[in-house]
Amino acid sequence: MRTVHVQTAEPYDVYIGADLLSECGQIINKAAGGSKAMIVSDSNVAPLYLEKVVKSMEAAGYECVSKVINAGEEHKNFATLVDIVETAAAERLSRKDIMVALGGGVVGDITGFAAAVYMRGIGYVQLPTTVLAAVDSSVGGKTAVDLPMGKNLAGAFYQPKAVICDYDCFDTLPDRDRNSGYAEVIKYAMIRGTEIFDMLDGPVENLIAKCITIKAVIVSEDEHESGVRQLLNFGHTIGHALEQNSGYTMLHGEAVARGMVYACELAEAKGKLAEGTKKTLIDALLRYNLDVDGAFDAEAIEGYMRNDKKAGGDKVNFVMPERIGACTVERMDIGEIVGVINELHNC
Ligand code: GLY
Q1: Do both 303 and 189 map to the same domain?
Q2: Are residues 154 and 101 located together in one domain of the fold?
Q3: Which residues are catalytic?
Q4: Across residues 226-250, what is the average pLDDT?
Q5: Is the CB of 185 under 6 A from ligand 1?
């Protein structure tokens, strides 16, 4: 088992290893305490892992309550959030008790938000079961639900007490979901960790630990995204817009993959991208069957970008790639971003 420390105002550890769900109860007890736990999972993950988690937690002395929500980004909304917190109240969870998020990004984001607002904040632990949640959304305390106007528009920065990443869970992921998660892995290579490209064929534990270490360093330096943490949004400004425009039929990583390629094209058009950068990115994305080219609906994308929480007026903080392992954040005009990409894809 590997451990990565996250030095936020309330620090915690990320545990990475095989079959960790079988021993999660003890780790959770040590990190989060409490006597009662509400385990939130979704309709895809619960049949696979909920029983194992409950068994381990009961063995560690917890009284467990389960809450299974419908799977899918379209359920990451206020209705589901209310359902979770009302269940917590009906089950009489106290301030000393905890919530446990067992699942991918949707379960992690909404459970974290529920933990942040229930009784003005109770402890929670993340048990990510997807590549995407393991390397990105479970670490760093970004919790949220989506609004009809945009993704993650309501939420809170609220750090978990621990993150337990059992990478055996990746074995049951559909190919499309696993591949989508690798877009976030490749994102780390693009912003900070060139060596990740060489680790893609190595042990998954090393790869996951590397990505989480990069994220932990960044989040420890800038918990609330006023500076360096913005780099983690590489590919996301356009990616989130593409994801929303697809009605969430496009997976997050699939949209981020396209967003990263478009960001490279924009940097290239502005003469800012080192030669070979875009090709290295595309070659890596194609290994995971991630689409790197596709229809670009300029009008819709521009609308969604204006609703992005990182936008203000006509401008947005855009993560501009310069070369592999190096990006900068630039305040850019949304119309210019969309205009340049639209021109490249419609001529
Ligand atoms: N997913 C980007 C971040 O946690 O900042």
Answers
A1: yes
A2: yes
A3: 120, 142, 184, 215, 225, 229, 233, 236, 240, 252
A4: 95
A5: no
Domain final residue, candidates 144, 172, 200: 172
In this prediction, residues 266-272 reach a mean pLDDT of 96
CA–centroid distance, residue 35 to ligand 1 (Å): 31
CA–CA separation, 84 and 119 (whole Å): 13
If you average pLDDT over residues 171-178, what whole number do you get?
Answer: 97
Distance CA 32, CA 169 (A): 22
Alpha helices, H only, 288-333: 298-307
Residues 203, 298, single domain; the answer is yes
Confidence of residue 313 (pLDDT cuts 50, 70, 90): confident
Whole-number Å distance, alpha carbon 307 to ligand 1 midpoint, is: 18
Average pLDDT over residues 210-224: 98
Number of domains observed in the structure of the chain: 2
**DSSP β-bridge partners for residue 332:** 316
76 and 110 Cβ atoms separated by less than 8 Å = yes
Pocket test for ligand 1, best of 229, 317, 329 (most atoms within 8 A of CB): 229
Ligand 1 atom 3: residue of nearest CA? 232
Give nearest CA residue, ligand 1 atom 5: 232
Confidence of residue 347 (pLDDT cuts 50, 70, 90): low
* Alpha-helix runs per DSSP H in 192-316: 196-199, 204-221, 236-245, 252-269, 277-287, 298-307
Detail the DSSP E strand segments found in the chain: 2-6, 12-17, 36-42, 63-69, 98-103, 123-128, 142-147, 150-157, 162-166, 311-312, 315-323, 326-333
Q: How many angstroms does the Cα of residue 233 sit away from the middle of ligand 1?
A: 6
Q: Measured between alpha carbons, how far is residue 148 from residues 95, 153, 184 in Å?
A: 31, 9, 25
Query: Which pLDDT band holds residue 311 (cuts at 50, 70, 90)?
Result: confident
Task: For ligand 1, say whether the CB of 140 is within 6 Å of any of its atoms.
Answer: yes
The answer on pLDDT for 310 being more than 80 is no
